[in-house]
Amino acid sequence: GERMRSMFAVTVQKVEKWAQKKKISKLISKGLQNDNKEIRIATIAALGKCGDETAMHQLIALLRDPDADIRAAAAEALGAMANPRSLEFVKQAMNNESDEKVREKAKLAVNQIREKAVKEEKE
Q1: d(CA 41, CA 73)
Q2: What is the pTM of this model?
């Protein structure tokens, strides 16, 4: 039945719950594979907050997604994560990206990652 299926549907709330519990594999398998773009974008943001290596690699891969909104979300999430190891990839996105919105997000992300690196050097 229809109700049964909606019970298993991934919602934005569910994505946020998984993020709080750091269920990275669930976010990747269920959130990123979702047909619903809103869910995918929420998952990308959640992965950015997780700050996990696996999450970072997923986000880097998404910088090459065919959908510009997904690429923009991935750039933003990498900025939020601010892992210095993602810097080169975000820079590439900034330089090679055809979509202006994605370029803007990548540029912001590059700045966020650099700022964090500078902070950590001072500590």
Answers
A1: 6
A2: 0.90
114's tokens: 């650099």
Write out the DSSP string of 38-93: HHHHHHHHHHHHH--HHHHHHHHHHTT-SSHHHHHHHHHHHHHH--GGGHHHHHHH
Cα gap 114→98, rounded to integer Å: 23
Tokens for 2? 């229809």
Distance from C-alpha of 68 to C-alpha of 49, rounded to nearest angstrom? 21
User: Are the beta carbons of 32 and 40 closer than 8 angstroms?
Assistant: yes
On the question of pLDDT at 3 being above 80, the answer is no
Residue 1 — very low, low, confident or very high, per pLDDT cuts 50/70/90? very low
Q: What is the pLDDT of residues 23-33, one digit of tens each?
A: 999 999 999 99
